[in-house]
Here is the input.
Amino acid sequence: MPEFKKTIGLTDAPMHYCPGCTHGIIHRLVAETLVELGVLGKAIGIVPVGCAVMAYDYFNCDCIQAPHGRAPAVATGVKRALPPESVVFTYQGDGDLAAIGTAETVHAAARGENITLIFINNAIYGMTGGQMAPTTLPNQITQTTPKGRDVSQAGFPIKMCEMIATLDGAAYIERVSTHTPKHVMAAKKAIKNAFKVQIEKKGFSMIEILSTCPTNWGMTPADSLDWVEENMVPFYPLGVFKDKSEEGVF
Amino acid sequence: MEHNIIIAGFGGQGILFLGKVIAGAALIQDKNVSWLPSYGPEMRGGTANCSVCISDQEIGDPLVTKPDILIVMNRPSFDKFIGSASKNSVVLVDSSLIDKKAERQDIQDFYVPASQLANENGLSKLGNIILLGTLAKATKMFEKEIFYEAIEQAVPSSRQQLVKTNKQAFEIGYDFIA
Amino acid sequence: MSKKFLMKGNEVIAEAAIRSGCTMFFGYPITPQTEVAAYMSKRLPEIGGVYLQAESEVSAINMVLGAASAGRRVMTSSSSPGISLKSEGISYIAASDLPCVIINVQRAGPGLGGIQPSQADYFQATKGLGHGDFHLMVFAPSSVQEIADLIKTAFDLSDKYRVPSLILADGIMGQMMEPVSFSEEESTDQPDKGWATSGHDNKRAPNIVNSLYLTPDELEKTVIERYQRYDVIAQNEVLFEKYLTEDADIIVVAYGASSRISKSVINTAREKGIKVGILRPITLWPFPTQAIKELCKTAKSFLCVEMSMGQMVEDVRLAVEGVRPVSFYGRTGGNTPRPEDILHKIEQLNEEEK
Here is the structure.
């Protein structure tokens, strides 16, 4: 029986994430994938502003901490600066990728930029203490939507995978989740597919990962996992929204 | 030597190109030179002008406000700049497009139907270079050969067939005055 | 002497950058600097470099951040409103100790302002191009030839000190053509960038480019270390030009386009028997404070000439420390100071001193 060990894709630094948060699982999935594909030494991670800002201490590859929302632009600069064998990914939350950085996300995809975006969607702003995110569900209570998100006032959530999949430069777009072991395994496969698309120079890839925030949702970790199943998955359907991994985008 | 030149007309008349040829001739003669275009929202047919300064001394202000050489190729430019030309300045007017004469006795003005001459000689759009020929004769600022060299340098390498027609236009303007 | 070309300032910015080893450019069109991008889009692919038109100035400066992190010589260019958009990224670049060159071909502000030449971004360039304690090295060319020379200096010093460089030009400098010759010497060797995030290849510990320090003591330490580097820059890299200052009663202080207009007036004033000279800062940060202080020993008064409502004049007053009067003459909104008006101001000052 194989032994469960720490991946060399992560450093020994203790993570700062709250108990029950799925960031830790997703870090591990990304790190394992880089190791398994043999590209950890060629990888450059671009980390966001938000809860994952200190991911540069956790990923065992070169990392850049980007201004809020600008990770896809920073990734573009890095990718084009380095030999094409380099593997460049961003790791961004919903505020970073789908609010302040929407333009950077859309245009990196439109250019078919050969990078991979790992998009953590937990429907809330974690680091600033639980405010409305662009992906906060209708009627979801947050610190800044105390009576629940009223879409007639606060607008609708953005379904990024559906939107980005419409762009010609997008090669691989999939939404996955982390609320059960089965979903975690599927998420790993999706992440690997996305990095393969990049390594094979097929175009832009993005994996949206439904994630939990027990602290700011005000739930236990176990309840949070159920909440993903009951509330997020119905609104943010899982699946592959675009797959040009064979033919590529150009 | 010191010249402060304004060239003005419509966009598309080769106003800026004419300035570049004069500036290029000055460079060939190892003069200090500056060329400054008016710039603004891009519009075909809008007004265009440029300032060219030529000097043996270091050039300070590249924006010409009191030209000693003024070349105008449309009526709005004539109206705008004729009053600013300095005393004894050389003023060249495309008289096929400007139906007015300067009401000043203290300038040397030349009226050349440059655009019309260009069209009659199959040199459409080379009215600017016809005026350059007249300027060369009127001021003797540089030898004809220097201007020819400047034309060769200013015409893009991909369109060198234009060198010949530019020289024809220059000759027409040069011979227009005695 | 190498061959002279008649070139636009904006084109020289681009050509000089390429000759200085710049192989990457990210930008967004804005008048009056668009020729920089146009030239780069043509030339960079020819030398195997990268030109990319970004979706915004915000993205462009962050692409610069990425390329600089990877260790490449990289440049971006814009004009005033676009530079405001870049200020977030510039603060991060400075805080991450990344070298790069940023061009501001100034137009008139505030707001959308106008597109004619201006020097109203002096405060922004020298005091506050973004949040936090930091500086850029700021170079202000006053001729097309000087653009060519300063671009190389800007790249070399930026690499040397790991401090971003800003070329503060204006619409006149960008749009004007003058003769220019380029240095024949090969581009200097770029220093080893062992800190670059280019992939560790499993041979070293990860490199991290970062500007986040959550512990005040740690952040204070990094900022103080950076300010010690700024001190070295201020000691060694100040550039300025003096003209007829030795016996001058009146010292004109001006940079960029307004300095060349002023300089021509100096000669006219001298012919009228007025003892006037000019000090032209070439680096605006570090500012030639000491040179101005020295001139206080011989000069009776100072006159600052700018294309703004008076910005650099504050640095001149700080340098003079109240021991001499400092006057100001400026035009704004896209107008340039007229030589006759500067002369009139000098004549006035000369009368007052009698």
